[in-house]
Structures are given as C-alpha cells and as structure tokens.
What we know:
Helix content of chain B: 40-55%
Mean pLDDT of chain C: 94
Shape of chain C: globular
Low-confidence stretches of chain B: 1-30
Shape of chain B: globular
Low-confidence stretches of chain C: 1-27
Strand content of chain B: 5-15%
Number of strands of chain C: 31
Structural class of chain B: mainly alpha
Oligomer: heterotrimer
Distance between the termini of chain C: 65 Å
Strand order of the largest sheet of chain C: 1-19-18-17-23-26-27
Largest sheet of chain C: 7 strands, mixed
Largest sheet of chain B: 2 strands, antiparallel
Amino acid sequence: xxxxxxxxxxxxxxxxxxxxxxxxxxxxxxxxxxxxxxxxxxxxxxxxxxxxxxxxxxxxxxxxxxxxxxxxxxxxxxxxxxxxxxxxxxxxxxxxxxxxxxxxxxxxxxxxxxxxxxxxxxxxxxxxxxxxxxxxxxxxxxxxxxxxxxxxxxxxxxxxxxxxxxxxxxxxxxxx
Amino acid sequence: xxxxxxxxxxxxxxxxxxxxxxxxxxxxxxxxxxxxxxxxxxxxxxxxxxxxxxxxxxxxxxxxxxxxxxxxxxxxxxxxxxxxxxxxxxxxxxxxxxxxxxxxxxxxxxxxxxxxxxxxxxxxxxxxxxxxxxxxxxxxxxxxxxxxxxxxxxxxxxxxxxxxxxxxxxxxxxxxxxxxxxxxxxxxxxxxxxxxxxxxxxxx
Amino acid sequence: xxxxxxxxxxxxxxxxxxxxxxxxxxxxxxxxxxxxxxxxxxxxxxxxxxxxxxxxxxxxxxxxxxxxxxxxxxxxxxxxxxxxxxxxxxxxxxxxxxxxxxxxxxxxxxxxxxxxxxxxxxxxxxxxxxxxxxxxxxxxxxxxxxxxxxxxxxxxxxxxxxxxxxxxxxxxxxxxxxxxxxxxxxxxxxxxxxxxxxxxxxxxxxxxxxxxxxxxxxxxxxxxxxxxxxxxxxxxxxxxxxxxxxxxxxxxxxxxxxxxxxxxxxxxxxxxxxxxxxxxxxxxxxxxxxxxxxxxxxxxxxxxxxxxxxxxxxxxxxxxxxxxxxxxxxxxxxxxxxxxxxxxxxxxxxxxxxxxxxxxxxxxxxxxxxxxxxxxxxxxxxxxxxxxxxxxxxxxxxxxxxxxxxxxxxxxxxxxxxxxxxxxxxxxxxxxxxxxxxxxxxxxxxxxxxxxxxxxxxxxxxxxxxxxxxxxxxxxxxxxxxxxxxxxxxxxxxxxxxxxxxxxxxxxxxxxxxxxxxxxxxxxxxxxxxxxxxxxxxxxxxxxxxxxxxxxxxxxxxxxxxxxxxxxxxxxxxxxxxxxxxxxxxxxxxxxxxxxxxxxxxxxxxxxxxxxxxxxxxxxxxxxxxxxxxxxxxxxxxxxxxxxxxxxxxxxxxxxxxxxxxxxxxxxxxxxxxxxxxxxxxxxxxxxxxxxxxxxxxxxxxxxxxxxxxxxxxxxxxxxxxxxxxxxxxxxxxxxxxxxxxxxxxxxxxxxxxxxxxxxxxxxxxxxxxxxxxxxxxxxxxxxxxxxxxxxxxxxxxxxxxxxxxxxxxxxxxxxxxxxxxxxxxxxxxxxxxxxxxxxxxxxxxxxxxxxxxxxxxxxxxxxxxxxxxxxxxxxxxxxxxxxxxxxxxxxxxxxxxxxxxxxxxxxxxxxxxxxxxxxxxxx
Lengths: 176, 204, 924
C-alpha cells in the first residue's frame, strides 16, 4: 500500500492509501467515479486513457493512466477531461471539437482533448512558426487512435483554434 | 486402466502446458542458460577462445530484450516478435522521447505488472552509435570495443556495465509476456570478464 | 404462430417518466435516461444552426454516457457498491476442457461465486436459436471455438477482482486434457445465386432468384463443402434447376477462352476486428425480493437484446427467473457491426442473476475483446469472368465463396448472401452464377461488420476488373462505364433497384479528377527510388436488410419544445442529430431532448409480431395482418447503414402527424381560416423559416405559439409511429379526425393536449409482398475512389500521395456527419487494405494474447490527412430520400489501393492485407 495525495482539476484530494498494483485508470474510474478518462486497450497503445500532468515548472504533458500505478501519481497535479470547462464555459478546444464535428462515437475524445490542450498551452508558452504547423499538430496527436473519424476533423479543429488566435500561438512575422 | 488414463492425461497436460506456454508466457518459464567461461577452456588458442566467449555473450546482446532498445533507427521495437513499438515513439533529442511522448510517461521506475509494461528509471533508447539491430555478432563486438561508439568505455568498464548495471539487468526480469535474456546477469558479467581477460577478441 | 407479448416481461422503463428532469443537485445521481437524453432541456444545443451534434457537449465534457461509464452508485435506486465479474474463456479448441485451476484463486483472490455450465443446466436457461451453442463449455467437452467461455467468476470486491485477473491472464488457468482435434459442425449456410438474362434487356429473365426463389444445395454427405454441381446425388428440384443453368454458365466461360478474355482468379481476404474503442461492457442488478432484473448495456440491437435475455430466462427455475426485466441502453463507443447480436449480454445477465441483490459489472479488457469480439469474415473467393473482346462487355461471371464463420453461426448466413449478391458490384452481367458457403471453424465468431461481406467480394471484383481492362487495353474507367448497370437494369437476383443508380456519375467524377488525369505524368516524374502508381475503383452497396423496422415517438410541449424517442442506436453515426434534423423539417425546430436506443417507450402502439419477416409466405402474412396491431417485425438493430433511411423514418412520420393534426389546425385557428376555406387543405404550402410557420399572405406563427394553441385546443401534440420496410415501406390508413390518413407507417398512437397516448386502429394496411424477400437488395448507394501511391523500392514503405472519393446518399440529414463517416470509412479501408490482419486459430486472437501492439489500425500518419478529398454529391432530386452510406464509403479505397500498387510495381496481389513486408518482398 502507498499513500496517494493528488490534485485533480484543481481539487486537492486528501491522501488515501492505495494498493501498489492499482492502476491510475482504475483509481480514476472505479474509486473516484471519474469515467471521463476512458479505458481503451490497457496497454498505452490507444491513449484514450491519458490525463494532463501539470509540472511545477509550468509545463504540462499527457500521461497514460492504464499502464501506470495510481501510486506513481502521488504528489502530482493533473487535469482530466471533466476539468476543461470552467463554470460551465467550454474551452476553445472543446468548442472547436463540437463545431467541427471532430468526433463521432466520442470515446477517444477525452484523450484528444487532453493532448490538444497540452499542445495549445505549449505553443502559447513558446509560439511556433506557421510553417510546419500541420506537421506539429499531426505529430502531437499521432499516438491517439480513433476508429470512427479518420482523424481529419480532429486535426482541423486544433488548427482552427490556433489560426483563430494566431497572436497567441504563432510567431508573429515582424513587418520591418 | 483408470490410473493409466490419468497418467496419460497428466502427461498430455504437461506437454500441452509447455507448448501453450512457449508462445506467449515465456516470461514465466525458465530461460535458456548461458555457458560458463570455464566451459570454453577446451579451446586452446586464446584468441579463438576469446571470440567464442563473445559469441556466447552474443546470445544476450542479440536477444530482443536488448536489441529492442538498441535499434538501427530512431524507433524502439517491442515484444519477443520485435514489432515496432506501439504507440509509435521516437528517440527525440535525448533518447528519452519527444516532448509529447517521453519514455517515462509510461515506463516508470519498475515493471508495472497489471499493465504488462516494463519499467526502469533510466528507460530510454541507446544512442544511435550503439545500434545493434541488424548487425552480426562480429560487428557488435567491434562496436562494443570502440570507445567512440561505446560511450567512451574501456573494455574493463563493460564488465560492470553488462554485469551490474540495473537497466541492463532489467533484461533478466522483464515482466509478464517477455522472454528474459538467456542465463542471468551474473553469468553474462562473468562472460564479459572472461572475454576481457582473454584479450577481448572478436569473432571473425 | 402468433405470440402475444411475453407475459413474464413487463417494461418498467424509467425512461417513460423522467424526461423532463430538472437539473438535480450534484450529490444526487442523475437518472440514467436523463443522462442519455441529449442535449437536455435548457442545455446548449449545438445542433441548432447545424453547428454541432446533439451529443456534442456531453462528449467533450466527459459526461457519463457509455455502458462502461456506469457503476451501481451512478444509478438512482441501485445499491451503492459494484461487484465485478470475470468471464473465463478457453484459449484452446482442440483439447478436452477439464476445469479451472481454482487453487490459484485462494485467500485474497477467491471469487465469491463461480458460475459454470452445470449451473446453467441446473437452473434451466435456454439459449435462443440464433445463438445456438453452449454458453459455457461443460467439463469433459472440447470447446466449440477458441475463446468459448467456461465460467463466470464473480468478486464482491473490486480489489479482489483486480488481483485475481492478473492470475488468470496467461491462459493456463483453464486446464485441458487429451487432444481431440476441433469440433466438426455442419456449415452454417450454403446458397447458389444464378441468373440468366433474357435475349434483350426488356425481355424477362430466363432464370433468376427473384423468379425462382433462393436455392440451397442438398446436404447429401458429410463433407466440408457441398456438392454444387447439377449432377449431385439427390438434388432438390428447385436447386437442380439453378445448378443446371449455373453449370452451363461455367461451361460457357471455359469454352469462350479462345475467343474471349477469360480470367480465373482467386482472392483471399483476412479476418479483422472492428476495434471499436470501447470494449464490451454491461452492468446488471437482480433484486431478489422484487424479482426485478435491471441491466445497463451498450449494443446495436437493444430490442433484440431484451428479447433474447427474456428468452434466456424464460423458463429458469425460481429464484432465477425475474418477473420484470428493465434493460436500459447506453451510447456506445463505436460499433461497426461488432455490437450487433453478440452473446456478451447473456453473461452480464447471468452474472446478475447468480449474484442477487449485488450489482455486477462485466467488462472486457482489450485482450478479451480481441479474443471474443465479433470479427469480419475471412473469405476465400474464386472468380471467373468472360469478356467479349470486341465490345468490351462482360458476358458471364461465376464465383465460389467460402467464408470462415468461426465458432458460432451469428450472421454468417446473411453475410454470405450479401457477399454473394454483391459479387458483380456496379456491373450488368447477363449470366451470373455464384456459390457461397459459410463454414463453422474453431476460430473466433465472425458476424456483422461494416461492409458485411460485400467489402470482400467487391474488392476482389474491382481488382479483377482492373486486370481485365488492362488485358483488353481499354481505359479502366471506360471499361467500367461500358458494363455499368443502368437505372432499370436488373441486379444479380433479377430485380432492378428502386432508388437512384448513380455509378455512372461517380465514374465521371473519378475520370475528371486530377489524380486520375495526371496519373501518367506523375508516374513519369517519380523521384529515383520511388515507384508511383494510380488506381481506381467504383462500387455500390446495399443499405437495408429487406426487413427493417423503425419506432419513433415525438412530443411537443406547450412552450414548443420537442422531445424525440427512437429505437435506433448512437454509435458515432449521429442518429440523434439526424433525428432532430428530420423532425425539424416537419415541426420547424430542433429537438432539445433526443433519447435513442429506446425499447420500452412505444408501448402505446401495442404492437404484436409473429414469424420471421424474411422467410414468411404471403398467405401467412395476409392472415396475420388482419390483426391491426400486427407488424412483421417490431424493431431492428442499427446496422446495414439504415440509420438515416430507417432509423429516422418513424420519428419523421410521427412529427408529420403532429403537424397535420396538431400544428396545422392550430395555425388555421390562429389565422382564422375556417374549415370550408380552400386554404384549409394547403398544409403542403406552408413552410418553416427560422422556427416560424409561414404561408403567403399570412402572418408568420412561431412554433411556441402554435404549440401552446395545440395544447389549449386539445389537438394532437404527440405521436408514436412504427414503420416496416421490405424494400419499400408498409403503408396504412388511420382514421383521424374523421378522415382517412394515409402514411408509410403501420402503427400509430396519438396524444392530444396533455393527455395519454392512445392507439389508432389502422383501417387497412399494405405490407410489401413477401416475394420481395427474393431480392438481394433494392436500395443502393454508389461510391468511387481514386488514389495515387508512392512506394519506396528499398523498404516497401507505401505512402498515400493523394486520394479522392466521391459518393451519393440522397438527402444527407447531417452533411458534416456524413462527411465524417466517409473520412472514417476511408481510414478503416486503408487499415483493411494495408495493415490489419488476424491469423486464424491458434496464433490468432482466440488465444487471448492480442492487443494493439500486434493489431495495427490506421493512425493519422498512415492516412495523408491533407491529401484526401471527399466529395458528397448532392441528391439527384431535391426530394430524394436519405440513403444509407456508412458502409459503402469504406469499400472502394481498398481495391483502388491494390490497383494503384499494381500500377506502381507491376505485381497484382491476390490477398489482403498488402503490408510493407509484402511490398518489399515483391520488389526484391
């Protein structure tokens, strides 16, 4: 047994004892009832199960939960799909996914939202050039499997969010 | 009659058990052993003996547990069938993955058995110059001796690297569904030591 | 044989009462129907204005929607704790099953309850005929197939279950004894489809399945394959007639070898997994005191699931027999056919029944899903085609198909016939003879999967067509055009299509596309080390099964809000949004409460059914239909691409009735138009604009006002309708307000004001004739693809440089969803052509060890996302009804890729998939 203290979507969860062999995915879904994070393969090969981990240095990245123990998240701050909307207001990426009909059955959507959100936040920190943007998006999302959509509209939605707020995400060409 | 049948059944069960296991549960069973350094004493010529010892060590070096992370390209391989790693990952700037997919996102400090996933806190790809995939034992030998391609090591340093390093040691306790490297890490270390002491000759 | 509603099954559906649930406090669980009724009253509705789906918000916020999301404590009225079950499966089907190594599950790993074959026998469960086969392999028998369940282990605590499943995963938990070899079972089905056209296109056929009926060879010996020839020992007369014609066709093909182009080719397709993202899962709770069984399931066939579960428990001994079954159906994380008629539901049921008063969850992990989930049939095909050299016309086609149906029959017979009747694709061939047989094997069960056999046969066909065109030195598109079936032409079964036939238009689009036009130039400018090739293919796929039914219930509230209930299922196909859009055509506004996968909310129709609508004879149907409540079938699975055409039909008709008898009289009242005014009958002239009903010269009326008036005047404010289609909709007359209302429905109930729904006895009904069952299909949608590939000589790596697909689907109810489906179909087609494969038997997924590391599905990087163009053609006429397209969009890319590969490397592959390793080998 190990102590697990964790902050999820801004809520600090009081330390609790968990089995060493309890997966993070089961901790979220069985213990906390937070089923927005999905179970797709149990082998970190589809990435439906990823959550966002917020590092102390202000960076963030996604992390699968199906092959990782709950204990390994002790002391971490994470975000799940349930935490993207604030006070009922959907995030720009959530709105873009809806607007673009990006998903169909929706089971992989939480993973794509988390991955896309991480990409957006990284770009907001360190803007990138417009050239090669589509490749960047493709590389970031390629680990995520979807069986319904062929990925097209997911990519379009992420691109739309970036291009609609180019000042935030893209290196601005200076006109000298 | 009944006793015979029961014996026959048990024998068949055992045989079946073996054949069922080899395909996908090899991690549970005993792996093939490594020959001891002494067993090569019959080879009179010291160079030939040295090379033969390295060839035996080659069984470890060319095993999937090692080659999967010493790939020729930038992507690790996975499993006893050595398929391309799924999900697709690449070495990134430091061999520990790209920004979006760090090795330690999934591979934590130790194997996580419920997830059938291997782990070690140093999990990463061997540098390109240490690629073994597709190479002969002779070529690996030349490479592993070359300080320019072995991380600046002397031959003697390889004894502890192979014999004691814990990431290397993972190959003998890889977790469910993966066949361990042959023998034990101690046996492998002993072979390296014997090879070094006999002049570290390479097979021709 | 007429059966009334089964006595022991009472529909106690919470769905009937909790539709207008107001927002509950977060601490209290929201009722299941409220979670699944989307978007919900007062909630953001992206479907308004067409800027999203009705389930859009729920899906981006991680709301509980899928069966796998629910635990007992999410369901009001259920006990708090969820227990968990493991379905233990046999990874072997050639040795005798001896039992389980329960010793390894002692102490902290011990299951609370174990259920085996002996327990089922003891309580007297019954397996519905469709699922024939032991639910659990009994000790002392060889499993019927790899992955056949042997037991359920039920664990009170999650932690025990979590640990126990680790001890089970290597497959040695299930113990075997002597080797017996696989169980041999008779073939699931065998058919022969033969057609000989008359001398001219207008002349009647000399012989066809529509004229003569479908025929099956006799089973005169216990051999793996039937004897097909007309000289077989003891053929039935009906079969022999077809066989004589069929044998003759084959003889003619062989005889024409010297003068015509004759191709005789094999083509083998592989087993694949639908790989929907959510593994199968269900939740059950059996309250012993009330004898009430509650289930939460995620399937494509909710009505069938409920019926089958009722049958399973229909004669079980007390206390294992419920007096009420309430099955609720969730959104599903993908289906593609793999959730249609699967036996998984029985095991959820059994887990609940054997663990009374404690809710139990049964869920597959992905290894188990690969082991047990329904697969696509692998088909071995041999095709022979004769083409007249002078005219370039196909004169005869013969084929033999052998399908691997795996361990249970499931849909094998249907898939075989669908595959067979699709074997000539878009072409008009005057002499056709196709044999098909679906075999039992010890592999994983094959059943319904997107394409349903026609993907396999049309892939083989379009590759053959490509070869023929090249051999004849004809342009590949021109060759197809010469042979394409025209609108009035007859299909293989001998009937014409009754919807638009647009393959010629699709061919034109392919021909005019830059990818096709530039193929020579692109090949010429290929960079060194890269081989470039372009391929094309055009197919047409049936939608509908020839026995489809639709239930829809629509309610209008006094303030103009619309609620829709439908029996079809949301699996990504966007049925909820399609329903809202189609109902909006009649009622002017997008519903804010759409409940799909409904079973128990159409009771007002009081429908009864009997017999099998696919095989019934006319006399039986004529007699049965005299009961005004009788329909040939009550509810269909969501499959066969019927969501748009069938799934939305009944709700649309219900909405039409509300308009005619609710909103229209309300409008007349508000416009002060009396009954004798000629405009009183002008309801077809009224139009909805921005939620207002408009008519020339009259003030616009907002829906809310009309609804309030309809309620105040006790006009019709709600309707429940049922429709049945056997290649055309059943039509009936219903007396409403003193007139005979005619519509394409066979059941109707109305609600006036705030009253209850009451059934309207139909005055007369016209069901499609049973002879329609002889058609292979009367509905079709065409799709074509052209693709350019670049293959790296040294490695065999294939890149899709550019791809284009064009398709038509009549009226697209939600164009964005339709395009999305086409994109997803493209991706699935690429995976099927190049990546996905499952070995049969011992090396395959039945061994329980397969996951996504070995089974490769297409990723974004496999698809050249920016170089794929998809064109949705507008309907042929503005009023063309919706057509089903979800399957056809997966098909042509597969042969197009194969043809492109041939164009690039000069090698024609005759099996799928064509992997990088195979390309490298062919190039070596």
